[in-house]
Design brief:
The chain has 257 residues and is α+β, with helices and mostly antiparallel strands. 49% of the residues lie in helices and 15% in strands.
Amino acid sequence: MSTPKKWAFSLLTSGALLVLVTALLVLNPGFLYANRTATTHYVIYHNRALDPALLPRLDQARAIDQQSSWFDPALRLNICLNDGSAYPKLVEKVLGPAFGWSVYRSVVLSGEANPRANYVFLNGYKWNLVQLLAHEAAHCYQLRRLGIWRMNPIIQQYPTWKLEGYAEYVARRGPNYPSLRQQVQQLNQAEQATPHEWGITLVDGTTASREYANYLIITTYCLDVKKLTYQQLLADTTSKQTVHRQLANWYRHGESQ
């Protein structure tokens, strides 16, 4: 084998090995954590002593997810905290920056969790902890139902707004959450007041992404106003732009339309 071919083979072999090792670590968080605490529904990975206030927050998130028709009671989730382990940083390198991620059956927190105050703190912003846990868990249930092939971000069989919008729809719905009309009004006001800001401040003082708020609004319109099931929404070929126009028309002319 000539020298250039040897170099190419060596690089390919090293690259393949690196990918395999990274995948092994990402899919097995226990390798990078000092402690593992098992509960009935979760395996919690952490480096520092576990805050007992986290357990009722996990119960609250599970109760939220149980309202989804895609909830799977048999799925036992991993909860990976950002408390000194290298694991969240590894996931960030693979998936990009975020407040949290879902990786197969793992919910990974990027920011510092404060369970007693119910938020995750990252880069000067607070994200509602229970809703973040419920959101990322909803993605795990999506993956369980759809399979890794259809959830593959490279193939991207479904548009991002339908996947993220539904996770937000599950996580943020509740008796104290604004109505759809109020959500549209709040987002419009925020974009007019501070058009270059990425987030929107919620009533509990935490922040949500404006992009995700938009996904939530159009998903809520499809599920609650158009009365589609989530499976029907995934199969629907109506473009995002058309749904936006339908939503705008509904907003202008009243909820009776």
